[in-house]
Amino acid sequence: MLLLWRENDLNDLFTIDCGEILLREFRIEDVDAIYELTSQPEVYEFLPDWRSTREQRLDWVTNYEIPENKEFLANVPSIGERWLKLGIVLKETDEFIGFCNTGIKEELSGPNREVAYSISKHFRNKGYTTQAVNGLINYLFKNNDVEQLNAVVLPRNVASNKVLDKCGFQLSGNIKIEDQLYYHYTLLKSEFNKIN
């Protein structure tokens, strides 16, 4: 898999090439696709905080997510507690099919940088999520001051648990968040570098 990160000349958007898919910064034109994705029961069952009205989503993308992405990228390699939210898009069609993000998970003790992701029900079981997560991991470990990544997943979310396993995360225990039990996964930069 070829992994490149660059500013896209056409849109001046940060992009990670992950093979069949690209990870790229959110843009205003993504609002309807993000809204549709996060309205799918298969998505909001596991990511209820992402459910919104279209108006809320437009506000969030415009006033929070796009500016936060620019701030994150302007501070590489010292990203601190900043968030990066990237769309998963099909390389051939530029269709927005999911997202792959990184930020601070306050419920975890430090280091608490998390990787979170979701993909449309129409594009599951094709390996796209694994490509996206691997692309983000590579970028974070090779270009930022990140030494450990985390993920928290509900035990019943079988597909997400498989993605994390394929990407080299290790189950480190359980954590309770808002009265729900989650699996807590970690991936150390030193371990990642041994296998890559």
Task: Please tell me about this protein's structure.
With 196 residues, this protein is an alpha+beta fold. The protein has one domain (4-195): Gcn5-related N-acetyltransferase (GNAT) (Aminopeptidase, 3-Layer(aba) Sandwich), CATH 3.40.630. It is 33% helix and 31% strand. It has a 6-stranded antiparallel beta sheet with strand order 1-2-3-4-5-6, with helices on both faces. It has a 3-stranded antiparallel beta sheet with strand order 7-9-8. A hairpin with a 3-residue loop joins strand 2 and strand 3. Helix 1 (31-38) crosses helix 3 (54-74). The longest helix has 21 residues, at 54-74.
How are the secondary structure elements laid out?
Blueprint: E1 4-8, E2 13-17, E3 21-25, H1 31-38, H2 41-44, H3 54-74, E4 84-90, E5 96-104, E6 113-119, H4 128-143, E7 148-153, H5 158-166, E8 170-177, E9 180-188, H6 189-195
Antiparallel strand pairs: 1-2, 2-3, 3-4, 4-5, 5-6, 7-9, 8-9
Helix pairs in contact: 1-3
Q: In sequence order, what are the helices and strands, one letter per element?
A: EEEHHHEEEHEHEEH
Q: What is the correct CATH architecture?
A: 3-Layer(aba) Sandwich
The averaged pLDDT comes out at 90
Number of strands: 9
- CATH level 4 superfamily: Gcn5-related N-acetyltransferase (GNAT)
Q: How many structural units, i.e. domains? A: 1
- List low-confidence stretches: 1-10
Strand count, sense and closure of the main sheet?
Answer: 6 strands, antiparallel
- Radius of gyration equals 16 Å
At a glance:
The chain is of the alpha+beta class and 196 residues long. The chain is 33% helix and 31% strand.
